[in-house]
Structure formats: C-alpha cells, structure tokens
Design brief:
The complex is a heterodimer of chains A (about 500) and B (about 500). By secondary structure, chain A is of the alpha+beta class. Helices cover about 40% and strands about 20% of the residues of chain A. Chain A has 3 domains: about 290 residues, no CATH class; about 110 residues, no CATH class; about 60 residues, Arc Repressor Mutant, subunit A (Orthogonal Bundle), CATH 1.10.10. Chain A has a 9-stranded mixed beta sheet with strand order 2-6-7-10-1-11-12-13-14. In chain A, strands 5-4-15 form a 3-stranded antiparallel beta sheet, with no helix packed on it. In chain A, strand 13 and strand 14 form a beta hairpin. In chain A, helix 2 runs antiparallel to helix 3 and helix 7 runs antiparallel to helix 8. Chain A is elongated, with a radius of gyration of 31 Å. In chain B, helix 9 packs across helix 12. The radius of gyration of chain B is 21 Å and the shape is globular. Chain B has 15 helices and 11 strands. Chain B has a domain of about 300 residues: Amidase signature (AS) domain (Amidase signature (AS) enzymes, Alpha-Beta Complex). In chain B, helix 4 links the parallel strand 2 and strand 3. In chain B, about 40% of the residues lie in helices and about 10% in strands. Classes of the chains: A alpha+beta (about 500), B alpha/beta (about 500). The interface between A and B is large, with 30 and 45 residues. Bound molecules: zinc ion. The site of zinc ion (ZN) has 8 residues of chain A, from loops. Zinc ion binds next to loops of chain A.
C-alpha cells in the first residue's frame, strides 16, 4: 500500500488598519494607541441611540489604492452591510462591513520563495469598522476568571481593509511570504503602517489538508495569531494535528481554533460564540456608495510600482542577486533612492552595492528614513562617478560619503574637507599609508626623525614609496606635510 | 388670552412685535398641560422649568432688539425618541433607564435655533412600535377628542399634545404611519415628509429605511412653518438629500388645485373602510373637482395586497438590528448576571415590552440564514414593486387622495391583544413609507358622534410642497381643527 501523502491548503484573511486621520464613519481621530481610554469617541462610534454613520471618503480612497495595487477590479457601486452579533466591544451590536458587493474583487499578488515566483489570487478586498478593546481585570488579562472587564472604544470605528486570499498557499512559509508581501505593499502605498505588533495588521488563517487518498479535511480557522512567528507556528501545529487525525481515519471538525502562543497549541473555541448567524443585511443608514471613475483613475495614477515589480526589475533588468533584489525592494523609498542614483548616471550594480552596504547601514544605525538623509541620490551618484572614473578610491569615497552624510555638503566640498582632490586620497587614508610606510622603513625614518637626512634623499625615497602605495593620488606637498605630521607625533 | 388655541405663526409674530411675551405663552400652555395631563398622559417628561427659563431668555432677546427666529417663543412638544442634550430620552421603554443623550437631534437643534421652546417630551408606543400609544412603559395616552379612545400611535403623545393645546406644534416620527394615523385619530394635521428630506440624526432608530420625522399642527400654515425650519440638508445623515428645500410657506400663499389631477385609489375604497371616512374621501374629491381639479382613478394593487406583510418583514428586520445595542453594557437598564449572555438576556427581557420583543424576534427570524431569501429579500423585491407602482400612479395623478386609517379611533384596550388588527390600522399609511413618499393627514372635521374625520394626501418624492398646497385648499373648505376639550370642561 502506498503511504499517504498530504497537501496543505491555506487561505488568509489579512486585516489592515487604514492610515486615515479619522474613523470610518465619524470624525473622531484614529490614534488610539496611548490615548486615554474612551476619549476619541463621539455618539456615532459609541453607537449611541440616534447616531448615524457617514462615510470617510479618505478610507474609501485608501481601500481603492490597495485594491488597484493588488490588481483587483473595483465595484463602481459598492455597499455596506451590517454583521450582527452581541459583544461588549461592539457598541452597536453590529459591525458595519461589506458583504455581497465588496469594494474590490479578483486580484492577485506574487510571492517569492526559494527562488520561485508564485501568484496568489486575491478573492476580495472590503472595508469594515474595527471594534473597541476589552480589558479583563485578571492577572493574565484573560476573560475567564476576570472579576470585571473594561471597554475602551477609542479603536471602535477605525477603518480596516480586509484582504482575503484564495486558498492557494501551500505551506506556513508561503503564508509568511504572503503576509510579508502584503505588509510591504501597504507600506509602499502608505495605506497602513502594517505593524503586526500594534495590531494594525492582523491575520486569520484558514487551513485544511488534502489527502492523497482523495479525502479533503474540513477547513479550520485559526485566530489570535499576533505575529508572523505565531502564525507560522500555529499553521505548523495545525498541519501536524490535522494530518494526524486524517491518518487515524478521523474527521476534521470545521471550527474556529485559537492559537495559544505560550503553550504552542491551537484550541477549539466552540461554544456559544461559535454558533453565529451574523444575519447580514444591507446597512440602511448608508446609501450605496458610488466609486467614481475619476477617483479610481486619480488613485491609479498615483500608484507607485509595487514591491514585487521592483524586485523583479532589480533581479531581471538590473541583474542583481536575488538577495539584493529582495533587500533593496523592501522599502519603497530605498528602492526609489537606488533607482534615482542609477538614473543620475551611476552604474546600477555599483549603486546597488553602495545603497545596500553604506546607505542601509546608516539607516539601520540611525533609524532615519532614506528621505531624512543629508545625501540625495544625485549626491551619491556624483560621488560614484569619481569612483567609476578611478579618480577616487573606494576607501576614500567612503570617507567622503561619511562627510557628506554628516554635513550635508556636495561631493566636491566633502572631498576638500577630507583633504582629497579629485583623484586624491583622503587625509585619513593618507595618514594610514604614511604611518605604514614609515613603520616599514624604520632605518630611513630614523634618519628623518633625527634630522640627519640633510640632503632629503631619504625623504624622497619614502615619499616615492608612499606615492606608489596611493597610486599617485595625492599632491607631493600633501604627502610631505603628512610625513612631517607623523614625525611630529612620534616626537610626542 | 388663550394662547394655547393660537397658531404658532401668530404666537411668534405677537412675541416679536411685543404684543405679549414668550413667558405669557409658555405659562398658559404649561397650565393647559398641567390641567389635562392627569387625564391624557401625553408627555413622558414635561420640561416646565427649562421651558420657562428658555421663554424668559427669548423675551430678553426680543426686548434687546434681537430676533430669535420664525418660531420665536413657540411651545413645541418633541416625541421622546428624539435626543435633546441632557434631557432623559426613553423611547417609551424601560430599557433606556435614565439615559440622557449628550447631544441634540438635528431637528431639536433647528427648532431651538428658530426660537422654539420645548415644553415636553411626549409619550409613544415603545420604540415607535404600535398604533395606539398603549405600548408605552409610561402608561397609555388618551385621545383628547374622546378620552375613552386611543390617540393612535406611535406618536400619540405628540398628536394628543397638539390636539389638546399644550403646544401649537409637535414633532413625531413616522415609520409606517406613526404621524398620519395619530393625526387622524386626534383630529389634527400631520405630515410625513419624503424620506431624506428631514435629518434623522438624533432620532432613535426603529426602521432606518422607513423612519422620517415630521410635524403635527392644527393648521396647514404651521405645518409649513415647521417644515421651513426642519427640512434641511444634514451631512450627519447619509440618507438626507443634499441641496436646498423649497419654501413651504411660500407654496401655500395662493393655493390652487385648478388643472391638477387627483388620483383616487380603487383598492382603498369600500371594503372594510369606515363609511364616514369613505364619505370624507368622496366629499373632499367633490370639493376638489368643483375647485377645478380633475379626479382620476389610480390602482395600487400590490400596495393593497402586499404592503402590510412587506412592511412587517422589513421594519422588524431593521429594528432587530437597531435595537441590538440595548444590551446593558454602556447605558440604560442593566440586569447583572454571572456571565455576559445571561446579562444580555435578562436586561433585554426585562427592558423591552412584549410588542418590541415580538418584532425583534420576527425581524431576527426574517434575517436568519436559510430564511433571508424567503422573507427579507422577497420583501425588498416587493418593496421595489410598490415604488414602481406608485411611480406609475403618479404618471396619471399629481396627488393621490386616500384614507389615512381604515377606522375611526378605537377604544383603549380594544385591540391590545390582537396585534394583527392593530397592524391593520396602518394599512393605508405604510405603503407610503415603503415607497419613501411624502404623505399627509388632513383633518376634515368631525362625524356626527364628534369623532375626527380625515383624508390622506400622497405626492411623488420631494413634492411635499404640493401636499401642503392641496392641504391648504382642503383646510379652507373643511375648516381648521380646534383645540380638543381633553375630557376637561
Ligand atoms: Zn466617533
């Protein structure tokens, strides 16, 4: 008998908090993190009797932006539905969401894994409002055993875009790459900060197993995965659990399971909560929303190239390594910076090397964004022009870049400051070479040091060695002055 | 002076011109209210002190040369499902407890900005579900024309207040007839504007796609005066139509029906219609014909056959969702329990009355998976056909003339245990809500037993001023309704 084999089938629902100033259906600020509880609220987002929603068009625009970037078709007439259920964090006891006519449908997005590209189809993107936050007064912050619970409605009504994938992901690693690509995209588009830790990007995962004997296990939804790592672990756990059951000939129960990050297991959350019939029906307080063609076209024109396009371009057209293509397309500003360096005349590979090592290093060290740097892409390109011509050594160029970054001055001024002419070495590099040559030629140096080299022959000899070392890229008087400085330092 | 018998427009102009003060008016109306309230129970929350203070403020403004507005010093009554900042708002229910909204409904704000003085919040069927104002947690209201009878509902308290002379004008809300039916029962005028003409911001929702706020008054010109004040675009209500409204008082300056076509609905004549009300339609039609209008036959078979069931699916469905927020977590009544679900169940079982619970259950059922298509979706389709049917009728007629109610005011307790008969009370009014049209009850006097007669006028969407024009012609013929005795001689 053939041993059984399995295929994992995963679909993801990614909730992205949209980066609007105000909430989806009122004008309260969305900044709920760090705000005093229940201060960013009004009758509408508290769902007070008599209050009504009015749509924040900005949220609609951001939704359209994400949808277009995901190659979705936009529904020109979209509508909101009410999703009814009771929970204390839901002030109206229904969530205004979308149902049969979501903002956008039928998109796709590529992911990259182990050198391969896989296209993942996007079922839909819809808008909905976030709920408030429950705070349970127990040691571990969990509901069971809580003496009482508190509700903060600052988050209630914050706009979310839910992006639903087709069940086409076949491993936890693919799921991870998918989420990372969504995160990269929303950051590219500035529709969300995509921060999983703070909850502005949340994932629910659906996972099932297809068995080689033809059985197809029921779908299980996993909730409460609050990090990429948690998602991967939860999916790995579920894969093993479900395969185990199928191997034993048991059925998989179609259910929602909660990931327990501490114990590393998923737990069934069947019970009262589970038996939901959401009774979706069209939200009568919001007429159908016309998504005007002009809005769509304006948004389309404002779209940056998506991260996967940048990555493919770097790899295919620029012939960068897969790793470099990935790291240089991670952030839109960095990628555009790099493109502009190349557009200003620098060699692509060289530009990529410099951005990857020097620029990214500075960004990592300082925590700055690329736009905050004192050196623009043209500045870096003009520096690289010197390197390319061979008129500036790599080492010298790095010193010059440091000065440019620190002082925000042009390459020529920075070179002066560094004591290098076009075709020269920096003072620092020169100092190093001088000290090295003097050290290696102790006898001649000693004569200079004691003032016995009256004819200056030994000085000329040493100077010649130094000149050879720096390939003549400094003026003789500079070299001579540097020799004096080193000798002075020896005298103490 | 009997201020409580005066029109709002005369009160406002008298105060503005210094003939009398707002305080005089308010004191008189409050005295009227205090005398009749023990019998009528038209108000849930009288606001005597607030009203007096407001009146004094208005008098001060007038004497310092300011014009407080077109409703200067006019007492008004507001149905208790509209929010007024800091004033208890109950919706006739126990479930809201002592909840005081932190904000004003747009209509309340507009009335007050025009100088109106809110003297009380009126009794109503709980959450506007009912046709008799007997389904109130605060006791039933009596009809001031005959205190053994109901005032109609759900805005029975507002209608009774105007009929009894507490105030010349009041606001009600109309989801399936809740302005027009009590106006008919109390012998006054009542207008349900076109859906989307008046902002619903601050109106506690019953059925969002049907609810509309409108005025009661004892004169057509007062109805127009209120409409000029409250019919405004409000961005806080997404269903409120943007743009300017016509001048409603302007439309009744020289009212004429000459050359207009008046449609009589074939299906709504005869049958179980009260003969006196049938005659009222006939007499009104004859008068209009002799005033130069053309009487035409129109047919509304779908509205007649399916209006009621369609309404009793859509309205409860929306209500089941709108009323879900009353869970005891944030405001109002809370019945504590060891767990959340039990707390919800206890709070809602104790807080909601029987009729409200019946409709929540009906609506929940209609939206449930497996039943949605057969009930809710089907009702939406029927609703669309009713809209089309009215649109067709308005190809043939400029205005439709039909009864407001099938019967004269019934006795208290008569239908309380018979919900279906109670629902039938709105059979002529609710198709108008389903189609989003403006509808108006116009008082046409009293029958031989002193019970009020009326007709209902219906116009195409946004043609509210056409209704007022017709109503003005009918009023000129039938006479303006007077103040009822309220059972006190
Ligand atoms: Zn708000």
């Amino acid at each position: 008998m053939m041993p059984l084999s399995f295929e994992t089938v995963i679909g993801l629902e990614v909730h992205v908090q949209l980066a609007t100033e105000s909430k989806l259906f009122c004008s309260c600020p969305t900044a709920y993190i760090g705000s005093e509880p229940n201060t960013n609220v009004c009758p509408a987002c508290l769902g007070l009797p008599g209050s009504l929603p009015s749509l924040n068009r900005r949220a609609l625009e951001l939704g359209v932006k994400a949808a277009l970037a995901l190659n979705c078709s936009i529904n020109c007439m979209t509508k909101f539905h009410r999703k009814n259920y009771f929970y204390p964090d839901l002030p109206k006891a229904f969530q205004v969401s979308q149902y049969d006519v979501p903002l956008a449908v039928s998109g796709s997005m590529p992911i990259f894994l182990e050198g391969k590209v896989k296209n993942i189809n996007i079922t839909r993107l819809h808008l909905e409002e976030d709920a408030g936050k429950l705070i349970h007064e127990t040691a571990d912050g969990r509901l069971s055993g809580a003496a009482f619970s508190l509700v903060d409605y600052n988050r209630a009504g914050v706009p979310l875009a839910e992006i639903v994938s087709e069940p086409e992901l076949s491993s936890p690693e693919e799921a991870r790459e998918y989420v990372l690509m969504i995160r990269r995209l929303v950051r590219y588009l500035e529709v969300s900060d995509g921060d999983m830790e703070s909850g502005s990007l949340r994932v629910d995962a659906n996972i099932s197993q297809k068995c080689s004997d033809g059985r197809w296990g029921s779908r299980v939804e996993i909730k409460n995965v609050n990090s990429l790592r948690a998602m991967e672990r939860a999916l790995e756990y579920e894969t093993i659990r479900q395969r185990g059951l199928l191997l034993k000939g048991e059925e998989i129960v179609q259910e929602t399971r909660h990931w327990d990050d501490n114990s590393g297991v998923t737990r069934s959350s069947r019970g009262k909560e589970e038996a939901h019939d959401y009774r979706y029906f069209p939200e009568p307080d919001l007429p159908q929303i016309a998504v005007e063609r002009t809005l769509v076209e304006n948004v389309r024109e404002s779209l940056p190239e998506p991260p996967w396009k940048k990555r493919e371009k770097f790899a295919r057209e620029w012939r960068l390594s897969p790793a470099d293509s990935a790291s240089l397309s991670e952030n839109l500003d960095v990628a555009v910076f790099l493109e502009n360096v190349a557009a200003s005349g620098a060699d692509r590979q060289m530009a990529a090397n410099w951005v990857k090592t020097d620029i990214l290093r500075v960004l990592n060290e300082t925590g700055l964004a690329v736009g905050d740097l004192q050196v623009g892409p043209e500045g870096l390109a003009s520096l690289l022009a010197h390197v390319e011509k061979g008129s500036l050594s790599n080492t010298a160029a790095k010193d010059v870049l440091d000065i440019m970054l620190k002082k925000g001055i042009a390459v020529d001024d920075a070179m002066k400051e560094a004591g290098v002419k076009a075709g020269g070495v920096s003072r620092e590099s020169l100092l190093g070479v001088v000290a090295k040559v003097l050290g290696e030629n102790a006898a001649e140096t000693a004569l200079l040091f004691s003032g016995e080299d009256t004819s200056g022959k030994k000085r000329k000899f040493l100077q010649g060695l130094i000149m050879r070392e720096i390939r003549g890229q400094a003026a003789p008087e500079d070299v001579s002055a540097m020799i004096d400085r080193v000798l002075d330092e020896m005298k103490g | 002076m009997l201020f409580h018998e005066m029109e709002a427009s005369s009160i406002a102009s008298g105060i503005r011109e210094g003939e009398f003060t707002a305080k005089d008016v308010v004191v008189d109306c409050l005295a009227r209210m205090r005398a009749l309230e023990p019998v009528l129970n038209a108000l849930i929350t009288p606001l005597s002190e607030n009203a007096l203070a407001k009146a004094v403020g208005i008098d001060a403004a007038v004497s310092s040369g300011k014009d407080p507005g077109s409703l200067c010093g006019v007492p008004v009554v507001i149905k208790d499902n509209m929010c007024a900042r800091g004033v208890r708002t109950t919706c006739g229910s126990r479930i809201l407890g002592d909840w005081k909204p932190p904000y004003d409904a747009t209509v309340v704000d507009l009335l007050e900005k025009a100088g109106a003085v809110v003297i009380g919040k009126s009794n109503m069927d709980e959450f506007a579900m009912g046709s008799s104002t007997e389904h109130s947690a605060f006791g039933p209201t009596s009809n001031p024309r005959d205190t053994d009878r109901v005032p109609g509902g759900s805005s029975g308290g507002s209608a009774a207040s105007v009929a009894a002379g507490y105030a010349p004008i009041a606001l009600g809300s109309d989801t399936g007839g809740s302005i027009r039916q009590p106006a008919a029962f109390c012998g006054i005028h009542g207008l349900k504007p076109t859906y989307g003409l008046v902002s619903r911001w601050g109106l506690v929702a019953f059925a969002s796609s049907l609810d509309q706020i409108g005025p009661f008054a004892r004169s057509v010109s007062d109805i127009a005066l209120v409409m000029d004040t409250i019919a405004r675009y409000d961005p806080r209500d997404s269903t409120c139509r943007p743009g300017d409204r016509p001048g409603y008082r302007e439309s009744i300056k020289a009212p004429t029906v000459r050359g207009k076509r008046v449609g009589i609905v074939r299906e709504f004549q005869g049958g179980s219609l009260d003969p006196d009300l049938g005659r009222s339609i006939e007499n009104t039609a004859s008068m209009l014909a002799s005033s130069g209008a053309e009487i035409v036959d129109v047919s509304l078979p779908e509205s007649a056959a399916y209006g009621l069931p369609c309404y009793y699916i859509i309205a409860p469905a929306e209500a089941s969702s709108n009323l879900a927020r009353f869970d005891g977590v944030r405001y109002g009544l809370r019945e504590d329990a060891a767990d959340l679900i039990t707390q919800f169940i206890r709070t809602r079982s104790k807080g909601f009355g029987e009729e409200v619970q019946r409709r929540i259950l009906t609506g929940t059922f209609a939206l449930s998976s497996g039943y949605y298509d057969a009930y809710y979706l089907l009702a939406l389709k029927v609703r669309r056909r009713i809209c089309v049917e009215f649109a067709d009728a308005f190809e043939a007629a400029d205005v439709i003339l039909m009864p407001a109610t099938p019967s004269l005011p019934f006795r208290k307790g008569e239908l309380i245990d018979d919900p279906i008969s109670m629902y039938m009370s709105d059979v002529f009014t609710l198709p108008v809500n389903l189609a989003g049209l403006p509808g108006m009850t116009v008082s046409t006097g009293m029958n031989d037993s002193g019970l009020p007669l009326s007709v209902q006028l219906v116009a195409p969407r946004w043609e509210d001023s056409r209704l007022l024009e017709f109503a003005a012609v009918i009023e000129a013929w039938a006479g303006r309704p007077g103040v009822a005795s309220g059972g006190v001689l």
